[in-house]
Amino acid sequence: MNPAASGPVTITHYSDVLCVWAYIANIRLEELRRQFGAQVRVRSRLCSVFADVETKVSIGWRERGGVSAFRDHVAHVISGFDHVSLHADVWSRTVPTTSATAHAAIKAVELVAPSTQGEGSETEPSAAELYAWQLRLAFFRDGRDVSCVEVELAVASELGLPVDALRARLADGSAWAALHRDYEEARVEQVRGSPTFLLNERRQMLYGNVGYKIIEANVVELLRQPADQASWC
After folding, report:
1. Distance set, CA 4 to CA 15, 29, 203, 220, 225 (Å)
2. In this structure, is the dihedral angle defined by the CA atoms of residues 189, 193, 194 and 199, taken in order, positive or negative?
3. Residue 233 pLDDT > 50
């Protein structure tokens, strides 16, 4: 798709690795890159939805049946999509304590590949984005507890990432500091949940289970808009 463009359009994508809607929505980012190429630039950032699973799920869902009811909810959501799957152990035998450790590991990957800064090329995801996706697969598809550091590092090793360097960034706190910056940015931008897509210099926010065609329509309109067009306000 190649409308007359002033682009590239920058999309800041916030997500939590344990969020089922972000798991489902990853294919939409892939399609954006495939369709628009250099006309779209994705900034991947992390937000805190499952930083405290005990409060979010066990307590937050207590009146609706607790963790087992939440598991049924996730299974129902995933059953509506053919491109993702759910392991039987997820939210039953495999109940992570937090998404924060996995998020810190993602930031560690960014730090050992600083040229990407969490952003892929126009057509390819960054190492950190690929790693984040593999963590989602490890949890949802394979039933692995990605809140455990050793699981996170095992997934990194499977991707050929430098495990010792990642462990060092986690140990010296630099990955956690980078994660704090993401969380603070999400707070300032008033990100309400995962996934969230910010476009048009933060004027447009698409949140939750937003279909691809809606995202695409927003991108197309931004590409068609002349860079010097005056505001109608």
Report:
1. 30, 21, 21, 9, 9
2. negative
3. no
- The span from the CA of 17 to the CA of 122, in Å, is 22
Among the listed residues 57, 51, 45, 56, the one whose alpha carbon sits nearest the alpha carbon of residue 15: 45
Question: pLDDT of 78-115, one tens digit each?
Answer: 999 999 999 999 999 999 999 999 999 999 999 998 65
Give pTM, 2 decimals. Answer: 0.90
**162 phi/psi in degrees, rounded to 5:** -75, 95
Count other Cβ atoms within 10 Å, centred on residue 93.
10
Domain boundaries, the chain: 9-224
**Spatial CA neighbour of 41 closest among 217, 183, 198:** 198
| CATH top class, domain 9-224 | alpha beta
Six-digit token string for 83: 């491109």
Determine contact, residues 9/39, Cβ cutoff 8 Å: yes
Strand segments (E) across the chain: 9-15, 40-46, 196-199, 204-207
Which DSSP symbol is given to 41?
A: E
Q: Encode burial over 111-137: b for 16+ CB neighbours within 10 A, e otherwise.
A: bbbeebebbbeeeebbbbbebbbbbbb
1 burial (CB, 10 Å; 0-12 / 13-18 / 19+) is: exposed
Give Cα 156 to chain centroid, integer Å. Answer: 17
Q: What DSSP assignment string belongs to 186-213?
A: HHHTT--SSSEEEETTTTEEEESS--HH
SS3 of residue 145 by DSSP: coil
